[in-house]
């Protein structure tokens, strides 16, 4: 199975390639005052106006200015798509081995890691979209 590696802050995360609909450059996002902090705002994608989610804020990190490396990873969720803003998309990787997240990762990240993937030069937290986006839907 192949994974898409991406960075948020100094952390490396990954999603299974079949969980990614597409990766696009940052688009203009219209902010909404008094909205939920993890919703950066609204953008036009696929001929629809959709909420754009800051993965940085959703993971409890402070927001930062977009750069030329900022990307939107569009993931299918429920009956639609969720655009997630990430700092940088890095590569497509096949991991050599996987481990269960350590207990401190489970508590700190509220179970958003399915597992930790390891390869020769790095490791990445494999995100569980149901947990990650489920918390967004409930809030």
User: Would you count the extended β strands for me?
Assistant: 11
Give the CATH topology.
Answer: OB fold (Dihydrolipoamide Acetyltransferase, E2P)
Query: Would you state the CATH class?
Result: Mainly Beta
CATH architecture: Beta Barrel
Strand arrangement across the biggest beta sheet:
8-1-2-11-10-9
Percentage beta strand: over 45%
N-end to C-end Cα span: 32 Å
Q: Looking at the chains present, what oligomeric state does this protein adopt? A: single chain
Q: Biggest β-sheet: count, sense, barrel?
A: 6 strands, mixed
CATH superfamily: CheA-289, Domain 4
Shape: globular
Number of helices: 3
| Helix percentage range | 10-25%
Gyration radius over CA: 15 Å
H/E topology pattern: EEEEEHEEEEHEEH
Poorly predicted sequence stretches spanning 5 or more consecutive residues: none
Derived structural class: mainly beta
Write the layout of secondary structure elements.
Layout: E1 3-8, E2 11-16, E3 22-25, E4 39-45, E5 48-54, H1 55-58, E6 71-77, E7 80-86, E8 88-93, E9 97-99, H2 103-108, E10 113-118, E11 123-127, H3 129-138
Parallel strand pairs: 2-11, 5-7
Antiparallel strand pairs: 1-2, 1-8, 3-6, 4-5, 6-7, 9-10, 10-11
Concise overview:
The chain has helices at 55-58, 103-108, 129-138, and strands at residues 3-8, 11-16, 22-25, 39-45, 48-54, 71-77, 80-86, 88-93, 97-99, 113-118, 123-127.
Structure description:
The protein is mainly beta and 139 residues long. The chain has a single domain, classed as OB fold (Dihydrolipoamide Acetyltransferase, E2P). It contains 3 helices and 11 strands, in the order E-E-E-E-E-H-E-E-E-E-H-E-E-H. The strands form 2 sheets. It has a 6-stranded mixed β-sheet, with no helix packed on it. It has a 5-stranded mixed β-sheet with strand order 3-6-7-5-4. The longest helix is centred in the C-terminal third of the chain and has 10 residues. It is globular. The model has no long low-confidence stretch (mean pLDDT 88).
